[in-house]
Model the fold of this input.
Amino acid sequence: MKFVFLILFPVIAFAGLPTKEEQFKISLATVIENATMSDVRPGMVVASPSKSNPDYYFDWVRDTSLTMRAMVDYYELKHDSRTKRMIFTWIDSEIYRQNLPTMTGLGEPKFNVNGSGFSGPWGRPQNDGAALRALAMIKFARILLKEGQQDFVIKKLYNSMMPASAAIKKDLEYVGHNWREHSFDLWEEEKGMHFYTLLAQFTALQEGAILAREMGDGGAADFYQEQRNQIGNKLKEFVDPRVGIVVTKEKSARLDYKNSGLDVAPLLALLHTSPYQKLFPFRSAPVLKYVQTLIDSFNDHYAVNKTYPDLGVAIGRYIEDKYDGYQTSSAGNPWFLSTLALGEYYCLLRNETKNRKLTDLVEKQFNRVLFHSDRQGHLSEQFNQTSGTMQGARDLTWSHNAFMTAMMRCGLI
Done:
């Protein structure tokens, strides 16, 4: 039975920019709405309510895992019983589709809203999804263990039984045995070995090994740790003196126009695996070089950065991007989630270095996002690189989730 989870807000007519706190409340409500659509299988999250131009009315494992990681973080802060029920419903949904026959098993990226696997042509497998889902569930499992709910954890999340049936165990086994496989990147465009995917897998296995040992599954813990170490060695190959960190290596399916090696995906990887992985600290030389190169490139590339220089830097996916939110033969734009990622990075770098001067940069990134919103709390996928107006999928769940996560990571909630 589907529960109803509503947070009601009055329609707000902002005289100017909404405050960060106002936007957080609306983003939270929007994420919940996108996770509780009446025609969607309970526990699934639509990427956007948009059903045409573009049609994002599907559930992507990656997007949903990141969304529910944010809801786990929110539950940890607020201990809200309705949020907890929402997470339980998501876990049941994930267990259902982990066992659903699909074209690539746990590498399947996308599902129809009725819960069935999407069987049309697509970039598959995408092997970051299982790792991201495991990370979100591992954090929740730790919370439940502290709350004395060990029985639930053992029954549904982690136990030593093989073949694996518990949700976390099933994902960790998949990651541990399949990380060497070429897969498609998080933008679903290139096949190869990706920094984002590998760092997600590295971190899931690291945290999975700790949980496995806590749950008395020592043999599995040893296996996960060994695979984690091997992935760590592989990740070192992505350090590049030219851009700091390259996005993809060993391309077996590629875009002929994407040649710089520079992409916001590694920054997202660092954020999505925080605070667990320590292989690439935020203040390490490769990361600092990479982020500065990213900033310099996009600052020069988008007109909105020159038109409104007092705001933070608008960041897109990659410089050569041709997807404008509607078609793939145009010019790419800044994305809300990418621009927020830079603000979240500044927060975490501030925490790591104790450099309070970074606070001004954090505020500028939030102000850039709020400035290009519709001032009513809606956040689409992109905003135009010249005019600054929103375009692409409306109320993208990931955009709102990114706002929530940045606010929580910055200690503003």
